[in-house]
Amino acid sequence: MTILMMVLTILLPAAGALALKLIPGLNADRKRLYLVTGCALLADCVLAAITALCGDAEWTFLRLADSLPLMLKSDMLSRFFCVFFTVMWTVPVLYSYRYMEHEGHDRRYNMFYLLTLAALNALAFSGTAVTMYLNFEMMTLLSVALVLHEMTKDAIAAGLKYLIYSIAGATMGLLGIFYLATNTNGAVFVPGGSLDASAMTVSPTVMMVILLITLVGFGTKAGMFPMHAWLPTAHPIAPAPASAVLSGVITKAGVLCILRIIFYVVGADFIRGTWLQQTLLTLSLLTVFMGSMMAFRTDLFKKRLAYSTVSQVSYVLMGIFMLQPTALTGSLLHIIFHSTIKTTLFLAAGAIIHQTGKTKVSELEGIGKQMPVTIWCFTLASLGLIGIPPTGGFISKWNLAQGALASGTGIFSWLGPVVLLISALLTAGYLLPVTIHGFFPGKDFDYEGLQTCECHRFMLISMILCVVFVILGGMFPGAFTAFFGRIASSLM
Fold first, then answer.
1. What angle do CA 304, 450, 237 make, to 5 degrees?
2. CA distance 329 to 486
3. Where are the domains of the chain?
């Protein structure tokens, strides 16, 4: 049963994409096109939920060699990521129906949208490092079409940059997979790792250098320094719903790969207390601060949000690299809350651009009077990203700070929370001006020529759903915290 459900969660979006290709007349009938897409995604949500209730299972569907099985594996982490990927991929569909009217090429967009979800679910259920690498590359090749969608000169340049960085990062990850394959007690992901430190074919120092390259490589997708430059280029160019999933979901694919390498292949004990852990923490905290500073200094609206993603996803990485259960719980919480928050912010930015044509923060004076519901959604999501209670962002950052203080990582035990606080202040500095100047443009503002231009209700529904989740998740976090706490405890 579990194996069947795993396979179906992967095949259903692919089948939906095939249906979009084969059903005639969809180019002229957008309503029917989005109905097919929406039904495929909703059905996949149901399958993902059923799979989440099933037990552990694994299925080897192909062997490239005796020691290189291609395997699907269901465990707590894979089931969580499958549900996460599928639900967050479904949220922007109603929004897309109205937004993509002025973008065109809806059939192509929706086909690649569904195929990318199929690759993400295959990545979630990957049972070995080689399977994970192949699905990671497939996800990259399919998702680049979302960046290229407009096919302008800037879109092509951004898509190529995304592709080059992603393939370079995956190649760096493949280097580690080569070495780890000969130094582990089996290819299958195992909680706690299967690295045989007593029988390694290379010295521990060399292995740590290889691991550093590997983790930085997979960290490319998560926007970690020094492989972050693709993100602020690609996200502003893509259509707003694509930007939302690139920021909220695709970046977490890199996080998943890092989790698998550290906790299911190498094991936390091999890294804990070493120069490798210190280097990884340094890179993650540097990325948090740098991303916040760049967002603060950027006037282009969607680019500001893209730099914010660079910063916020490294909150997740910092918690992982602390190698401490509470910090890891905070990271897993931040995965879901950052995704819903950043989806709201990008969708709000897209709605503003769609309705007014304004692309810079400095142009948004009075926007709260024109689009009050959109800016209220933006404001509440911003408070969540800053970490103001009772939002979900506060809960995840609280666990990250508590885990850092209890991690025993020397200077990073206190430096981590300090950087998080500084980043929170910078986050307030680059997000709240949209609200302040949007609702309170000043006495010299021309109120006479102001016209209400709120976006369509379909576009609002996606934003409102995300905001409600962020607030309710912060008010009632017990179930999420307990679930992620069980995952974290099983890996330490």
1. 25
2. 9
3. 272-492
